[in-house]
Amino acid sequence: MDLDVPFSQKDEAKRLGARWSPSRRTWYIPSGRDPRPFAKWLPGGEVQRPYEVFAYEGYLVTAQEFCWRCRDPFQAIGFLLAPGVVIDDGPERGRETLKDWAFIEYATRLSQDVARFAQQVQSAYREGYSRTTNSRYWANHCPACQALQGDFHLYSEPDGAFWLADRDDAARMRAQRLPCNFAADGQIAMGSGPAWAIAGVRQTQTPSRATSPSAQTSPAPSTLPGWLRWLVGRS
């Protein structure tokens, strides 16, 4: 990721870990580095607000879903993050590092690299407005009728594509490693279950260490009250 670093600030950028490319004559963030310390040098004319969720290792997960409106089958996509996810809750609450696998839901902002890769896999994945949550977020849409497929159903209902309670649920999913770091604004889904059992995910746990879907995940504060989350529908 290239940086727009003024000459007077090059020493600061170097101290933070930025590198200089002589051939391209530009500073850049090395692969694997957290981009947030370099936010003020990101191109675009404005200082980019740091992302709330960051992970060095993330996966794009696919699973079959059926549209709630037209009932057509389609391939839904979601993001699974490996242990070590950093949650930035702001200056008052500070940062938290999760020790378990975690799905992301209600992503209101995605890094350009993550969004680009997601849309290469599923072009119907895009920002959309949910009347149920009265908000916009990155969501799956039915390729046939374009209906938004709500994250609550996908992640928190037993028949949702990314409900993950046991190995049978994991067997329905396929994962591929993201070619970039994961960065987004969003929430941690209720639980990740035996994520290590999903085909394409590296095994960092054994079945003997598996827990219930929410036993080890430290959730970030939800933007919805608990009672409302259980009323959220499919759109």
Describe this structure in words.
The protein has 235 residues and is α+β, with helices and mostly antiparallel strands. It folds into two domains: 2-41, no CATH class; 53-229, no CATH class. Helix content is 14%, strand content 29%. The chain has helices spanning 10-16, 112-121, 151-156, 167-171, 226-229, and strands spanning 2-3, 19-21, 26-28, 53-55, 58-66, 73-81, 86-88, 95-97, 102-110, 126-130, 135-141, 148-149, 174-177, 182-188. The strands form three sheets. The chain has an eight-stranded antiparallel sheet with strand order 8-7-4-14-9-6-5-13. The chain starts with a strand and ends in a 6-residue tail after the last helix.
List the helices and strands in order. EHEEEEEEEEHEEEHHEEH
Task: Calculate the mean pLDDT score and round it.
Answer: 84
Number of H/I helices = 5
Helix content, binned percent: 10-25%
Structure classification? alpha+beta
Q: How many β-strand stretches? A: 14
Strand portion, in percent? 25-35%
What is the overall shape?
Answer: elongated
What topology, given as strand order, has the largest sheet?
Answer: 8-7-4-14-9-6-5-13
Give the CA-CA distance, first to last residue.
35 Å
The total domain count is: 2
Provide a concise account of the structure shown.
This protein folds into two domains: 40 residues, no CATH class; 177 residues, no CATH class. Helices cover 14% and strands 29% of the residues. It is built from five helices and 14 strands.
